[in-house]
Every structure is written in structure tokens, then in C-alpha cells.
Amino acid sequence: MNKEADLIFINGRIATINNNQNFVSSVAIKDGIFIAVGNNDDSLSYKGEKTKIIDLNGRTVIPGLNDSHLHIIRGGLYYNLELRWDGIPTLAEALNRINEQSQHTPNPHWIRVVGGWSELQFKEKRMPTIEEIVRNTGSVPALVMHLYHCVMINKKAIEAAGYDKDTPNPPGAEFEHDRSDNLTGLITAKPAAVILYQTLAKAPKLLYDEQINSTRQFMYELNRFGVTSAIDAGGGFQNYPDDYKVISDLAKQDLLTVRIAYNLFTQRPQKELEDFTNWIKMVKPGEGNDFYRMNGAGEMLVFSAADYENILEPRPDLAKQMESELKEVVKVLVKNRWPFRMHATYNESITRFLNVFEEVNNEIPFNGLRWFFDHAETISEDNIKRVKALNGGIAIQDRLAFQGEYFIQRYGKEVSENSPPIKKIIEMGVPLGAGTDATRVATYNPWISLYWLVSGKSVGGTLLRSKNNCLDRMEALRLYTLGSAWFSGEQNKKGSIEIGKFVDLAVLSDDYFSVEEEQIKEIESVLTIVNGRVVYAKEEFQNLAPLSLDVIPSWSPISIFGGYYSSRNNQNQNQNQNSNNSSSLQRQKQVTANYNMDHNNNKNHLVKDKEKNNENQNSSIIDSKEINVNDKSIKIQYSNHICPCCDDFFSF
Ligand SMILES: [Zn+2]
Ligand SMILES: [Zn+2]
Q: Which residue from 180, 188, 443, 526 puts its CA 20 to 30 A from 605's CA?
């Protein structure tokens, strides 16, 4: 007799990412594992007295998405503190939001907008001016960070950070001064992004309980888009083990709703070898469980190898001592069988990194050790061959979707068409994973990255890659699921819907395979399941949704606006609003579902986007002109205080 399933899904359009069985209509689940994958009858033969049956109503289902390069642990610690401009269609609305937030953020906290947006996503096609930020934030310290390019801070934040007109320019960065020599609040990376982080680090952090809440809200936000796994790439000011306490405490309590494999990122320039030698004594790759496991070293191995993708500035040439520093670290990693990942933007850097890896391999064979490059936007065919020869992989992200227009301007259309050379990497059989590199350049919304993989377009709508370097939708989905699973060595456990694999899946709002290409960006999940448990549910599945969890602190921008901008929620919100519901802090709460699966420990929550009507913001537009990018006309508006480092772009 068959085992009795906990749950059976019927009547779906389920993309399995299994070549032998592209689409099925039904799956049966027991103890978080698929026990049947096929048609309704195949699954229903596992029906018992306690089995719950869910009708998918013909909805499209995919394996849970896996972002193979996401700064999820650091992002989680700060999520409740940051106001997101991700996906906001107009600068006017973006400014409205900092204006409204300035009425809620208490002293000494700052308003922080950190990454996930590009001025080209805005209808106005321009950056905010310092004056606009000052005017909309008043006496609350405020910081707006643009890519790895610049931060704009208001006077209160200049004071709080302890900067003044005599503060010297840091190496590779510049403070802007006005005619009276006072700081304007614009700080530009030229191209060293360190000053951007240092400025950000001057703002207060959340308390422990708030960080716990913030991390859970961030995971929930990722679940909203069908993300069920991520490989964490560490980060500056993300020190092991101190800054991992929140995530490991959540893991111990079984409260993770995204599976996380994490890499350790060196924190101290010139002391990298010491960092890794210490960590090798403390923790082992693979240590942990299927929700929280250690994945080796990276993405920073040595600081001298950091080739920042600040496309607004020329490509940096790495220092001469890079090779010897990198070699020492890689030798120790290979000797101790530590898998590693390495940030690498440009082919010129990759050539030098591969020289080092090949030398180490001659002394201490890699011998199948899992390693990979992150980003690799301009990697050459020759270097892909060298990666393959050392059994490496490449994890790509949609960073150019946020700055591709600048990339075209600097390197030309032909280089852009092949950056990164996605099709070539697949053709050559090198493991390839997809992701975002969120949260400081790209947004964490995976559908923007899937859209970029499929369409080759930026968030500003510019065609960046040639059509023969774009993927069909199934290929793109494969990268984002099974492809990414290789990067934590878990491709046999997850990434496809097959008997014996983990039940991580998302039921989609729209049919990814048939919607108009532009609509891919609007897709969300209506039901996300991790390890057989419901972690997110809405629409007809709303009664399966887990418990809601209020955002703390209550003044958090997440509490007021939610995360990624959603025109969908905006519409719902407007329909649901009644005359008493005018306070921006009011949120809809989710009633606990009477759902008898094993989710006692999984008290989750629901955060509804709170949207305001778009009011046109006053701005200092003085002129506008049409520019041509890839045969498409873009209207650029000038203001009299545009960030000077963007001037280049406007002479496109
Ligand atoms: Zn990186
Ligand atoms: Zn990164």
C-alpha cells in the first residue's frame, strides 16, 4: 500500500525543470519531500484520511527560486531600517516617500534609501537633486545611495556623520563642496565604494529583537516573489561570527523561511589570511543543516582583488601585490578543502585571478573543489575555457539591468551585447547560476532578473544584450533553480520538482511562460512553500497563510510602505481603503489560518504595501532633451543641480 501523503496539489501547470517530464499537473508530498510527480491520478493514489488536497486552478507552479548571490544575511539585519525605491515608477513618488517617512523616523535614526533602484526606472529619467532630498527630509538625517557610485546626505546626516568642510577626501572618493566651500552632501566613489559604506555605517542600527524581526520580514518579502533559497555572499561590515548571531538564532528556532548557504567574506584589508585561518579553525564547509549551512569563503578573498562595478567610473586596475596576496589565501583554502567564490567584474581581472588559481592548482590540486566566479560581466571565451578546466562555475546577476546604459556608453554596444556571455557559458557546459547581488545595487526581486535574462533589457527599458544572448523562459528558470543549486552543492536535493527532492515551490500570480515579456516583471507568488510548509499565501490560498507578524519598530518604512513597489497591491489597497483607514501606519492583518500542517514554529506574517497617490513633486527641471539608446528615444530632463558625475550620461 502507498504511503499516505500530507498534501496533494491537483490541476496545476507545474514546471518541473526535469527534462524527462517538462510539465505535470499534480504532485504529492510527505514530510517535506515529493513522493509523486505526475497527473492527478498518480498523486491521488497517495490520498489518505488526513491528506489535504489543494486545487491549483490551472495556476503555473515552479520550483522555488534560488538566488545564488544575495546579501540576504546583511540585508535582513537592515531591511526594516531602509526605505525601498525598488520598482517605484516615478521620482515624484520616491520623493513623496522620503517626505512621508520624515514624519515617522525618530531621532537619532536616519532615513536610508540604499540600492535596488536606478534613475532610469523613473518616468522622469533622472536622479533626485540634493535640494530635493533636503527639502523632503528636513531635520531628519537622510541618506540616499545610488549604485556603487555616490551617496547623497542631508545636512543633519553630514553633522551626524561628523563630516565638515575640512574633512579630507578619502582615497578614491570625493566630497563635493559648494561655492562657500561647505559640503553639499554629495559623496562620490571614484571608484572606491568604501566611503559609501563607511557613511552608511555612521547611522544607528536596529536592536537585537528588531533585527530578528527585520530578518524575518526580509525572508517573507523574498517568499512573496517565490524565493525559497539563497546563497549569501557575505559583505563589508558583515563579520563572522558576530553578525551571524541573528540568522543562526533564527535557524536554531526553525524560523527560516528561505534556505541559506553562506560564504565568509574577509573583513580586514591586509589581514585576509588571518581572517580565513581563524575561521577555518571555527567552522567547516557543509556544517549546519538544509536550512542554514556553511558554504566556504568569499565573495571577498583579498581586498586588493576588488574590482568594483562602478560603471560610471573607468575600470580599476588592480594593484601589483594582488597576485601574491590572493595566492596565499587560495592555497590555504584549497589545502583545507574550503569551497570558495570570488567577486570578479572584468575580464582583465579574471585573467589575473585565473593565473593565480592555475599556479595554486599546480602546487595543490583543486581536485574537484567547488569554486566559482561571481558576476563575470566581460569574461572572454578563453577564460571560460580556463574556468571549465578547473571545474569552476559562474554565478551571474542582473546588475547591468540597473546601470547598463552607462555600460553601453563606456564600453560600446558590441561589448554590452555579450555581457555577460550567458549563452556561451551554457554552451561550453560551465555551471551557471542566476541571482541579483541585492540589496545595494540590484533589487532582490527575482522577476526583474528573470526579465533581464529573457529580454536582455534594463529596468529603464534599454536593450542591453543581443537577442542571441538572451534565454528562453525555461532556460532562465532553470538557471534560477537547478542552476543555482550547484553553487552550494545541493543540486541533488533541490532546484527541480522530482520524487525525493525537497518541496520548495511557488504558485504564480500569472503564467510566466505565456505572459507578455514586460509582464514578467509584475509576477509574484500567490503561494510559496518551503520544506512542505506554507510560508506565504494570498488570493484564493489566503486561508492557508501563516500568522502575521507586526513590523518592529513601528516607524519602519517597511511598516509604512512595504518592500518592493507593487502596482498590484496598490490597486488592492485602494479598493480596500475606507475613510477610517487613512493612517499610514495602519496595515491589514492576516487572520490565522486553520491549517493543520506542521507549521507550529512558523509564525509568519503579512505585510501589505501601503501606497500613496502619486502627487507631482516640485522639482528644479530646467530643460529636457531626447537621447537615442539602441534606436530608442529616451527623454532626459535636466535639473540645475544634477549630480555632476552623471553629466557624462546626459551627453550620451
Ligand atoms: Zn561582488
Ligand atoms: Zn555581492
A: 443
| CA pair distance 168, 325, nearest whole angstrom | 29
Query: pLDDT tens across 60-101, in order?
Result: 999 999 999 999 999 999 999 999 999 999 999 999 999 999
272: CA distance to ligand 1 center in Å?
A: 17
Ligand at minimal distance from the CA of 310 is 1
Give the SS3 label for residue 304: helix
Which ligand neighbours the alpha carbon of 375 most closely?
Answer: 1
Grid coordinates representing 116 are: 535596488
Cα of 295 from ligand 2 centre, angstroms? 15
Share of the chain above pLDDT 70, in %: 87
CA of 368 to the centre of ligand 1 (A): 23
Q: How confident is the model at residue 581 (pLDDT cuts 50, 70, 90)?
A: very low
Distances (CA, A) of 600 to 214, 461, 593: 20, 44, 12
Give the three-state DSSP class for 273. Answer: helix
Which domains are seen in the chain, by residue range?
A: 78-204 (3.10.310.70)
CA angle 82, 557, 613 (to 5 degrees): 125
Rounded distance between C-alpha atoms, residue 363 and residue 366, angstroms? 9
The CA 73 to ligand 2 mean position distance, Å, reads 12
Q: Which of 32, 506, 76 is nearest to 290 (CA)?
A: 32
Residues with CB under 5 A from ligand 2 (ion): 233, 437
- Give the C-alpha separation, 590 to 240, whole Å: 36
Instruction: Judge whether residue 580 has pLDDT over 90.
Output: no
Which residues of 167-269 form beta strands (DSSP E)?
Answer: 173-177, 183-189, 227-232, 259-264
Strand order in 533-537's β-sheet? 23-24, 13-15, 60-63, 505-508, 525-530, 533-537
| pLDDT tens sequence across 445-460 | 999 999 999 999 999 9
CA of 231 to the centre of ligand 1 (A): 13
8-state DSSP, 6: S
State the first-to-last Cα distance of the chain, in angstroms, to the nearest integer: 70
Instruction: Say which ligand is closest to the CA of 235.
Output: 2
Tell me the CA–centroid distance for residue 422 and ligand 1, in Å.
Answer: 18
The pLDDT of residue 191: 83
Give the model confidence (pLDDT) of 291-308 as tens digits: 999 999 999 999 999 998
Looking at residue 466, its amino acid is S
What values do phi and psi take at 215, rounded to 5? -65, -40
